[in-house]
Automatic annotation (TrEMBL):
InterPro entries: Homeodomain-like_sf, HTH-type_TetR-like_transc_reg, HTH_TetR, Tet_transcr_reg_TetR-rel_C_sf, TetR_SbtR-like_C. Pfam families: TetR_C_43, TetR_N. It comes from Actinoalloteichus caeruleus DSM 43889. Residues 28-47 bind DNA. Residues 6-65 form the HTH tetR-type domain. Keywords: DNA-binding, Transcription, Transcription regulation. This is Transcriptional regulator, TetR family. It comes from the Bacteria. PANTHER family: HTH-TYPE TRANSCRIPTIONAL REGULATOR BETI (PTHR30055:SF234), HTH-TYPE TRANSCRIPTIONAL REGULATOR RUTR (PTHR30055).
Length: 209
């Protein structure tokens, strides 16, 4: 890569990192180019697609943060405390970093490095949920699909209340966790578990909201 192209790529990475953290991964590419002080065409010439830019700018940091939260959760001796830590910390990341909120939602399936990080995160989540089930601490009818939907709902709430009531998500997470304790499972759930296909389709729809 020529020196001028390298400088432009660095400017674009820096601008994208700022805007992704401020507004999420859906920020218009023209705004990234404008903040970097380069043309829209230069962005496309250097990165080609939004997904390639996301992989270059977000994937490594997001993977590190998600892996850290999962490792902390699994290191708890108490399985319920580990599960609660995982839910609370992921919801906090969604509320404080719009880019991570989009990562957790799996909104960009063509960003290969990002999806690999999401895959590791989901596998860790399955271990955390299974551990809490085996300990008899988490209500037995709670599934990984339910966890995905809980994170999707938190992302929408956190984004909607970011300015007016930035801590509103914390109350909802506290209510959620109290309701997920095994001893709270007094009423059968009114619907069956969604299939993986239904979960994917629902998340795509939420990404358009």
């Amino acid at each position: 890569m020529r020196a001028d192209a390298q400088r432009n790529a660095e400017k674009l990475r820096a601008a994208a990192a700022e805007l992704f953290q401020e507004r999420g991964l859906q920020v218009p590419l023209k705004e990234i180019a404008r903040r970097a002080g380069v043309s829209h065409g230069t962005l496309y010439n250097l990165f080609g697609t939004r997904e390639a830019l996301i992989d270059a700018v977000v994937a490594e940091g997001a993977a590190r943060r998600l892996d850290e939260v999962a490792q902390q959760a699994l290191s708890h001796d108490d399985a319920w405390q580990g599960f609660a830590h995982y839910v609370e910390r992921l919801c906090e990341l969604q509320a404080t970093d719009p880019a991570v909120a989009d990562v957790v939602g799996g909104r960009y399936p063509d960003a290969e490095r990002l999806m690999a990080a999401c895959g590791r995160s989901m596998e860790a989540a399955r271990r955390i949920v299974r551990r809490a089930h085996e300990a008899g601490a988490l209500r037995p009818d709670f599934t990984n699909a339910d966890l995905v939907f809980a994170f999707a709902a938190n992302a929408l709430l956190a984004r909607a209340t970011a300015d007016a009531a930035p801590d509103a998500w914390r109350r909802q997470v506290a209510y959620l966790l109290d309701g997920l304790r095994a001893e709270a499972a007094r009423t059968p759930l009114p619907a069956s578990q969604p299939t993986e296909g239904q979960v994917r389709e629902a998340l795509r729809g939420l990404g358009e909201v």
